[in-house]
Amino acid sequence: MTTGHILLVDDEPGIARALTPALRAIGHEVTVAQDGNAAIAQMMLNSHDVVLLDLGLPDMDGKEVISKIRQRTNTPIIVISARHQEEEKIAALDVGADDYVDKPFVLGELLARVRAALRRRHGQRKTVTHFDGGWLQIDYATREVRVGGDLVKLSPKEYNLLRMLAENAGQVVTQRRLLAAGWGRSEADPQYLRVYVGMLRQKLERGQDGVSAIATEPGVGYRLVIDTVQDEA
Amino acid sequence: MPSTVIPEPEILIPPTPRAKGWRAPLAALASIVHAGEVVHPLVPTGKERPLSFLRRLVQSQLLLLLFFELNIISRIWLTEGYSALILVLGITLIGALYGMALAIGSAILGALAFDYFISAPTFIFTISQVKHFAPPVIFTLAALVSGWLSGRLRDQTQRTMRSNRQLESLFAVSRDLQRASGPEDVYRVMHATLLRQFPETGGRAMGVYRPDHGTMQPLGNSPALPMWLDLARQALAGGRELARGGGISACLLDTGGGCNGVILVSDDPEPLDPAYLLALGRMVALALERIDLADDLAEVLAKARADALRSSLLASVSHDLRTPLTVINTAASTLLSFGGTFDAETSRGLLTDIVEEAERLNHLTTNLLQMTRLQSQDIGLRMADLSVSEVVRRVVAHGGRLAPGRDIRFSLEGADMTVRVDTTLFDLALTNVLHNALRYSQPPSSVDIACRRDGDDCVITITDQGIGIPPAQIERVFDRFYRVQREDGGTRGSGLGLAIAKGFVEASGGAISAQSPVADGHGTRMTIRLPLTAIED
C-alpha cells in the first residue's frame, strides 16, 4: 500500500485545513505542525513516512528544519514553497530535501509526489535490482535498458544518468547529483548535462506519447516522470 | 562616499611680537591657517628674502669703508700695489653679496678714493699717468666678474626656490584634491593653492569651467563674467592645451579620455610657469573625472538598490498572492476529488476556506491597487464629505463578519463628525488597521474603536489587547511590507495595510501613530487624526 503517516508543516492554517481531508481521504494519516520546532518535536515523538514542509516558517528557516530532521532520519521530505526561487530550492535539496512542489500546486500532482516518496521509502527496505516503469525497463545487474521491449544501446554516461533518474523516479534530481553520477564531478559544466539529457530523450522517445519522460526543472535539475509498476500483489 | 568639506581658507595673522623687520612677512606666511591645520609655508624657513636696495647700498658702502680702512692700516706693512689687492678683495666681496650694480659703483668710488688717499701723491687726483689707470680698470673688472657670478648664482637660487615652491604646491594640491568630494571642492582647492603660492598678492583671479550642453558652467565661485566665460569657450574650442590672451592663461582639463573643462588664471602680476599650470590642469582634470565617476557609481548603486527593493516587493506580493490561491485550489480540488466521502462539516469547512481566502485575495488586490494609487501623484483622490461614525460602523460590521466571535466595540464621544477624504481609501485604511488589531490579538479579547473631537481634528483610536509591538519595531510598522512577527506564527498579513493607512492619512492632511504597550505590557493603540471639514452655515 502506498499510504503512510504524513507530517504536514505549514504555518498557513488554511492550507493544512484544505490538504488534510484530501490526504485522509486516500488513506494517509496526517499530523499538522505549524512551525519548525513543532515539526522537529513531532519527528522525535512519532515515526512519519513523508514530511511535507513549507520553507517559510515563522520560527526558523525551512532549511534548518530539513537538516535537523536529516540528523536523525532519512524520511522523505517534500518541500512546498511559495517563493519560487531556484537557489532556495537547490539549497533545500542540498541540505537533504528529496523533492519540491511550488505553491499553488495541483492537488493531483502533490498526491503523486507523496505516492512516489512513499514507494521509495518502502523500496529502501529491500535491495532494488531493476526498474520497471512499464514501457521503460532497466536491469541494474546487466545494465540492459529496454524501451517498449526493445533493447536500447546507451553510452556509459547516458546509462549512469538514466539510472540516477530511475532510482529517484518521480522525484527531482539536482544537476549536481546528475553531474556527479555521469562525470564523477559535481562541478562539471551543466552544458554537458543538457547535451546528454537531450540524447537520452531521443533514445527514450519510442514508447511515449509525445511527452518527454525526462522533465526539466528549470534551474534545478531533471525528473523522470514515470510511475514504477509495483509488484504489489 | 564620505564627503570632506574644504572650507574657504582664511589667513589669520596672529600677533607675533618677536618677528620684526624682514622676518615679519615670513612669520605671517608661517601662520597661514587652513581648515584648522597649519599649512607649511611655501618659502623654506631660514632663507632670507631679497633686501631692499637702500639696505643693500648702505651695507655695501659700509663694507667698502671697512676694506678701505684695512687698506690704510695695511700701508704700514705693505706697498701700494699690495694694498690695492685688499681693495680688489673688498669689491669682489661686494659684487658677490650685493650684485653687479653696487659693485661697479663701489669700484668707481674705491678707485677715486684709492687715487686720492693712498696712491702717491696723496690727497690729489692724479690720473695723468698710465699707471694711474690700472687700479680703476682692475677694480671695475673685479666688480664685473664677481657681480656677474653672484647674479648667476642668485638667479639659479631663485629658480630652485621657485620650482621648490611649485613642487610643494603641486603636492599640496594633489593631497587636497584627493579629499575633494564635489566640483565645488575642486575650485576651493585651486583657489587656496594660488592663494598660498602668491600670498603677497592675495592669490590670483582664477576660474574652473566645465562644458554643459553647449554652455560653460563656472565651478564654485569662479568668475561668471561674460569675458571669462567667453575665454573658456574659446580655449575649449581652440583645443590647445595651453593658451594665453587678454592677460589670462587657459589650460584645458584633459585626462586623455577627453576634455572635461578649462582652467583660467590671471597673468597678473606675471604669467604662471606653463609647466606648473599644465600639471595643475592634469590634476584638476583627474579629480573632476574621479568625482564624475563616483557620482555615476552612486547613481548605479542607487538604481541597483531600487531594483533590489522592487524585486523583493514583487517576491513578497507573489508570495502573498500564492498562499490564498493555494488554499482555494487545494480546497476546491479536494472537494472535487473526494467530496462524496466527506461529512457535511468537512465539506462546509473547505467551502468556508474557499470563501475566506477569496475574500483575502480580494482584500490584497484592493490594497495593492490603492497602494499604487497613493504612490502615483497624478491620480487624484476622490474627496467627499463623509460621516465618520457611518464609515466606522460599516468597517466594524464588515470586520465582525470576517472575525466571528470577536468583540469589536465602537464608541462615539459627542456629536458625529464630518471629514473630507477619499471614500475608498478611508474605508480601506480603517479596515486595514482593524484587521491588524484582530490579527495580532487572540480571541476572545475585544478591539475598541473610539472617535472623538479634538479641536479641529477628528481622532479615531483603535485599541487591541494583543501582543503589542516591540519598541524597536514601532517606528517600522508603517513601512511597506514590514510585518511584526506573531508569537504563534499564525496568519500573516501582506505588510501593506498600515503603509496604506499611513499613506491615506497623510494624503488627507492628518497623522497616524502607534502606541504600544497600552496597558500592563499588552495591546497596541493606533491613533488616526484627520482634519474636520470646515463647518459652513
Automatic annotation (TrEMBL), chain A:
SMART domains: REC, Trans_reg_C. Gene3D superfamilies: 3.40.50.2300, 6.10.250.690, Winged helix-like DNA-binding domain superfamily/Winged helix DNA-binding domain (1.10.10.10). Residues 5-118 form the Response regulatory domain. It comes from the Bacteria. InterPro entries: CheY-like_superfamily, OmpR/PhoB-type_DNA-bd, Sig_transdc_resp-reg_C-effctor, Sig_transdc_resp-reg_receiver, WalR-like, WH-like_DNA-bd_sf. Pfam families: Response_reg (PF00072), Trans_reg_C (PF00486). The modification 4-aspartylphosphate is found at residue 54. Residues 126-226 bind DNA. Residues 126-226 form the OmpR/PhoB-type domain. Keywords: DNA-binding, Phosphoprotein. PANTHER family: KDP OPERON TRANSCRIPTIONAL REGULATORY PROTEIN KDPE, REGULATOR OF RPOS. This is Response regulator.
From TrEMBL, chain B:
It is a multi-pass membrane protein. It catalyses: ATP + protein L-histidine = ADP + protein N-phospho-L-histidine. CDD domains: HATPase, HisKA. The keyword Mitochondrion does not apply. InterPro entries: HATPase_C_sf, HATPase_dom, His_kinase_dom, HisK_dim/P_dom, HisK_dim/P_sf, Histidine_kinase_KdpD, KdpD_sf, KdpD_TM. Gene3D superfamilies: 1.10.287.130, Backbone structure of the membrane domain of e. Coli histidine kinase receptor kdpd, Histidine kinase-like ATPase, C-terminal domain. It is an enzyme of class 2 (transferase). It is found in: Membrane. Coiled coil: none annotated. Its main location: membrane. The chain crosses the membrane at residues 84-101, 108-127, 133-151. Keywords: ATP-binding, Kinase, Membrane, Nucleotide-binding, Phosphoprotein, Transferase, Transmembrane, Transmembrane helix, Two-component regulatory system. Residues 316-534 form the Histidine kinase domain. Its EC number is 2.7.13.3. It comes from the Bacteria. This is histidine kinase. The lineage of its organism: Bacteria, Pseudomonadati, Pseudomonadota, Alphaproteobacteria, Sphingomonadales.
